[in-house]
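User: two proteins, same treatment. go.

Assistant:
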Amino acid sequence: MQRDEEERDANTEAPEGDEFGSPRIVIVGAPGGRGLLASALDRRGADVEVMHVYRRQPLSPTPALISALRKRHDLVVLISSRQAFSIITDALGKELSPGWLDSRFVVSSGRLERVCRDAGVSRICTAAGAADEQMLAAARKAGWARDQGFGGGF
C-alpha cells in the first residue's frame, strides 16, 4: 500500500509515547495514508488507533492537462502525494508521460523527490512542507512562479 507523502520525514521523529500526556492517539484519515506516522508512534510506545473516515477516489487527468501535455507546455506541478503522482503518471500512458515527466515539479518532501527522480523527473524543487504557502514559496524561490497571477489549474 502506498503512503501519503503528506507524512513528512519529520513526523516520524515523534517523541516517546508517554510524552503525549494521553495513553491513546487516534489518527483520522483515509486508507493508504499516515502509515509511517502510526508505525513510528507505535514503536515509541504510544497506543495508536487509525480511523479511516473517507476513501480516496482517483480521477482521470482533465482534458486541459492532456491538452497542455500534448502541446508540450512547460508545466509547473505542485504535488504532495506519491499516490497521486503514481496515479497520474500511470493514467497518462506512454504518449503523454514524457511531457509530464519533463514538467517542473514542486514536491512536499525528500521522499517524494526521490520517487519523482526515480520515475524520470529531473526538474524538482522540494518545499518545506505540503501547506499551500510552503509549496508556493518553493515555486517562487525556484523562479517558477510569480507573486501575482499564479493560477489556473487542471
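Protein 2:
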Amino acid sequence: MTFTPVGSFLQAALNPGPGTISLNNQGIGNLILLAAYSDSSTNWVNSVTGGGATWTQISTRFTGSTNARTATIWAGTVTATGAQTATLGITGGSPNIRAAGLEFSSTVGSWALDVQSNLDGTGTNTWPSLTPSGSGELYFGFAIDSGSAVAGATSGYTYHSTTQGNGAAWNPSVSAASAPVWGDSGHVFGSMILVKETGGVAHNDTAALTVTPVMAMKKGVGLVPVLTVAPARVMTKGVGVKPAATVTPRLANTVLGPARGGAQYPRHHLAKGRGR
C-alpha cells in the first residue's frame, strides 16, 4: 500500500478570507490534502467545498497559544478531473488565510488520519516526529515561517516554499518515526499529520468475467454443456475478486439423440407446432 504525489503544488493567500483556491485534479478517487491556516485564534477555515472533490476535515483543529493562529487540514476525494476551484469558508470575521496542499494517488483508494502533532513556538528547523502504526504512511505538514522557508535534505521528504515564504513538506512512505529538518529555523506554527490507507482493494474497476464452456457427462442425459465462470485479474473496489462459479444450465425438452461411437449426446426437440 503506497501513496504517490501527483500534479502540481497547491497554494493560496487570502487577504482576507473567505476565498477560493485553484486546483488541477489528476485522477478520480485521488486524495487531496489541503492545509488552511488563519491568523486568528477565534475564526478559522471551517469548510472546503467544490473543487471537483468531496471534503472532510481530517485533522483536529489546532489553535496556538504562542501564535494567535488556527490550523485545519482537509482531505478531498477527487470526483472530477481538470481545472477546478474550491471555496474555503470561515467561521466569521475576516482573518487572513494561508493554504497549501497536494494531490496523492493511493493503491487502496481509502484513508484515515493516524497521527497528528502540532508546532507552536518562536522558531525551529525541525518539525514534530510522528510514528506510524503501520508501513507506507503519508507524512504531510504545513508551517508558517517567520522568515522564508529553506528546503532541507531529510531523506524521503519533498520540500516546498510558498510565495509567502511558508513551508510545506511531505513523505509518501513513512514506516518508522520520522520528521523533516529544514534549512532555516523560522518555522513557528503548523500541523503535521500521518495518513494511513484503509481497506484492501487496489482498483476501482469493474470485474471482468472469463467464461469457458466445457462438456460433462450427466447420468441419464449424456453430454451437457457446463459453463465455468471465473473473474479475470481485475478487482472491484470494496468487493475484490469473487471465487469462480460453475454454472450448469437447465436443459428443457432434452431427449437423447442416436448413439455415436457408443456414446449418447443431447439434442433439443422443438415444441409441437413451432418452427426452428
